[in-house]
Amino acid sequence: MATMTGAKFVAETIKSYGVDHIFFVPAVLYQVLSEFEKIGGTPVMAHSEKSAAYMADAYARVRNAPAVAFGQSVGALNLAAGLQDAFLALSPVVTLTGRRQPGWRQRHSYQEVDHRAAYDAVTKFNTEVETQDELPMLLRQAFREAVSGAPAPTHLDLPGISGVDLMGPGEEFEIIPEPRFNSIPPFRAHPDPADIADVAKLFSEAERPAIVAGGGVTLSGAATELRQVIEKLNVPMAYALNAKGQVPDTHPLNIGLVGSYSRSSANKFIREADFVLYVGSRTGSQVTHDWKIPGHGVKIAQIDIEGEELGRNYPNAASVLGDARESLKMLIDVVAPVAKRTAWLGRVAEIEAEWASKYQQFTTSDAVPMRPERVCKEISDALPDDVIVVVDTGHNAMWAGMYLDINKPGQRFLRCAGSLGWAFPAAIGAKYGAGDRSVVCFTGDGGLWYHFTELETAVNRGLPFVTVVNDNRSFNQTQGGAKQAFADNEGDGSNVWRFTDVDFAAIAQEMGAIGMRVTDPSELGAVITEAFKADRPVIIDAKTDPDAMAPKPWG
After folding, report:
1. How far is Cα 261 from Cα 414, in angstroms, rounded to an integer?
2. Mean pLDDT, range 394-411, rounded to an integer
3. pLDDT by residue (tens digit) across 480-495?
4. Which CATH superfamily is domain 193-353 in?
């Protein structure tokens, strides 16, 4: 025990969990940030609370470890809005905010808003801290809960609009390192062998088995075990976006992305299966294409760290409660190897070839403006072996999921789990978490406009990463609905989905980054390759066809 300020205690406790960066928007907890810097931590100032949340989210995902973000009282709801992505992506972001102190609340004091309900929606642990006595227990609990079980954000609301009322002198504090909670997972829950035997039996009985891998495989570090299972059983697999790259996209048993953001071939494959094992994947609307994939009557089994997910949406023929890696290890030990599945794998190859013949042509298209599929192919070919790929939602997630291949063990794919605009600030957080590893952001102009101001953050901090902008001068994913809705108007409705043509490369140059504008697809690969050598942020403005639409999911 030692006498110290609340600020010193908070800073040293955060650092004890392996956190080296705190993402924030002023003015909040300046005393903590000062103490944090004294002990080797780095405060990272963002231009909006949502950006700070997105940075922390990606930082946590890259490191498979907790991250921290701060927000002042009036910015606390902005921070909560940004936590939606971290919550949906199962990302352990610990947040601290300020609030009006007792005696000021319920009196219409300046900037007073109740934070509790907003944070209830996007956290697994949300509480107010009233006294210094409570700080040690509640702060440590926020970290423990963030990484345990299915990870998720947590939140402590501190008195004072900048959260400083408990940061002064007073208590004798003890810094108690808890290295078990410095990373995901803190515990490896071992499944019941009988449940694993049930899954093995279903594989032995199935004629057309399939596996769907989800984000739990990524969080558990189960890539090797997943590959061993599919190869031993000779069973094809599909994946949710959070598991992209866990098995190389070019692996012959990897049929690709399934669900609402998907290849039609993957949806058809899962639809025709007679048994599907979900590993670390919730059976929500996106991965099942609104619960149409797989079809009615298909036998379903699940491996999940959360018991409440087992049997959700689909009745289970077998349920395994346990860590994905440990469960797959046990499955490997008990299943008999399968040398051939001639008929089933032949049908899978047929489905894949049908898709390739229809859509793969766009990856080699020389059309100007460029096809997004070609852009994804050029990015894939230029990726360093250690790269982290950060991708926005909407069409960009569809293009990247289908056409941007992750094939090397050191490569990582991070997807936006909810809100357009996530990818660019997330790439900054990813770079902070990645150290010397390369980072590339793939976003559209619509996504970039949300938080393009964070380019100043990247330039100011000298962060070298590459952003490829799918610049079609529009929210083109929405154009079909807009044209239909505005059909009876004098105008064509383009005002609700088109942008002006802006030179992002020139803006980047003006802000101190490197900007490159590319219109010819034959030049793009070389530009991307060169960009990875830069010592500062690079914006590649890739001019693409606004009429190029991602194919609708089959089913």
Report:
1. 15
2. 95
3. 888 888 888 877 788 8
4. TPP-binding domain (3.40.50.1220)
